[in-house]
Amino acid sequence: MSNKVPEATLVFWAIKIMATTVGETGADYLAVHVGLGTALTGAMMATLLVVALVAQLRVRKYVPWIYWLTVVLVSVVGTQLTDALTDKLGVSLYASTIAFSLALAVVFALWYRSERTLSIHTIYTTRRELFYWGAVLFTFALGTAAGDLATEALGLGFMIGVVAFSALIALVAAFYYAGVNPVLTFWLAYILTRPLGASFGDLLSQSRTYGGIGLGTINTSLLFLGAITALVIFASAVEQRTVSAPAVREP
Fold it and tell me: Rounded CA gap, 215 and 29, in Å?
């Protein structure tokens, strides 16, 4: 198998942030506006995630549309995990943030103990890929809990949340360019893009009464799904061109 995870380019981060936004607004739309409820929405999205994940595990290389479909569905399911704990079971956002932080730490510890690396550049075995997707799921759940904690429980609001999480990501990027461990900075940025995307999604979709712009969940979801589709088509074209390019022989 070749590496199953794309390079962390600007296109990668753009799709990642928009996927997290769709996870926030899409889950809210299905659960609240369509009226499916948290439990039914969670069950439906979990089923679709299993199907997408099986397809992702079966392919032998990075296939953009399968990979990013899986990311979007992980985003929705991760959001549903946090929402179910908060809304249905009454677990505080402080407790869920700590719980998901510990769960993610356990996944990373088991992954490193088994493979001696957490790099996304070496996801070329099924076991490593399962560790990778387990980590991705908990980064979404943790990011949702931390984002809601900051914007709602701590009262920062959506706009300040977007600014605050953008500043933290910029700080992580500065550490990366200063030579700090690239694996550590990647995963820190990966975690922080979740609350950034969620705050941005809430800012766009929520009504002005609650501090949002008022686009609504369906309009916001469709807007970002369209943008994700365009970028995935672009990524697919780049991938195809890379694969079909003739090898250059050394002189």
Answer: 12
Q: Which of 76, 24, 83 is nearest to 50 (CA)?
A: 76
- Token look-up 């992702």 returns 56
Question: Helix or strand or coil: residue 211?
Answer: coil
Distance CA 93, CA 83 (A): 10
Are 144 and 86 in contact by the 8 Å Cβ rule? The answer is no
- For residues 52 and 69, the answer to whether their CB atoms sit within 8 Å is yes
> Percent of the chain having pLDDT more than 90?
49
The residue among 59, 178, 31 whose CA lies nearest residue 123 is: 59
d(CA 63, CA 209): 42
**CA 223 to each of CA 22, 180, 182, 199, 219: distance values in angstroms, whole numbers, following the listed order:** 9, 35, 32, 16, 6
Cβ–Cβ < 8 Å for 217, 26: yes
* DSSP secondary structure of 157-183: HHHHHHHHHHHHHHHHHHHHHTT--HH
pTM of the model: 0.87
Tokens linked to 86: 């908060």
Per-residue pLDDT of 69-111, as tens digits, reads 999 899 888 888 887 888 778 899 999 999 999 999 999 999 9
